[in-house]
Amino acid sequence: MKALSDFADPLLGLGAEPRDLTFAQISLRGVIIFVLTLVMVRLSSKRSLAEKTAFDAIFIVILASVLSRAVNGSAAFFSTIGGGFVLVLLHRSFSWIACRSHAFGRLIKGCPDVIVENGQPLLDIMRRNLISPHDLEEDLRLDAKVEDLSKIHRARIERSGDISFVKS
To answer: What distance in Å separates the CA atoms of residue 95 and residue 115, rounded to the nearest whole number?
Structure first.
């Protein structure tokens, strides 16, 4: 183990202050973190990359933030990698539980809200979800490919924040 440490320390600058890291050390750290992040994301779930909910987006942001510290040397290299794997296991565990428990899924991912019923906007629900009539009209044109709200049977703000439309 000592031999591995003696080999890795100067290559990765493990004992160095962040300001003392060389271009080569930061580059090698970046390559290692890139490869390990690929492994972590593959261990996680495909849904995390789609960032379908705040739960998934938060996971990606925190994982990136934690792992960036290993590249720039502001945190211990191997401990930071370990922390990244813990985050991946936590995300995967929460996803597994949410897949089997609707209540837990609603807690961590949220739930959709109906914002249009039979062509009529439900303004109080839209306001609660911070959707203006102009936002609704834009999504209506872009996603439903219509301009007349009366042609919409139901619209929902989904857990992802996207608006889905069911035409009449």
So the answer is: 27
CB count within 10 Å of CB 31 equals: 11
Give which of 16, 31, 17, 19 is closest to 71, Cα–Cα.
Answer: 31
pLDDT in tens, 123-144: 999 999 999 999 999 999 999 9
Give Cα 66 distance to the centre of its chain.
14
Note the pTM of the prediction, 2 decimals: 0.77
User: Range(s) for CATH 3.30.240.20 in the chain?
Assistant: 112-167
Q: Which two tokens stand for residue 35?
A: 């490869």
Domain 112-167 has CATH 3.30.240.20: yes
CB 113 within 8 A of CB 126: no
By DSSP bridging, strand 120-121 and strand 113-117 are antiparallel
Residues 6+ apart with CB under 8 A from 139: 163, 165
Rounded-to-integer distance, Cα 12 and Cα 71, Å:
9
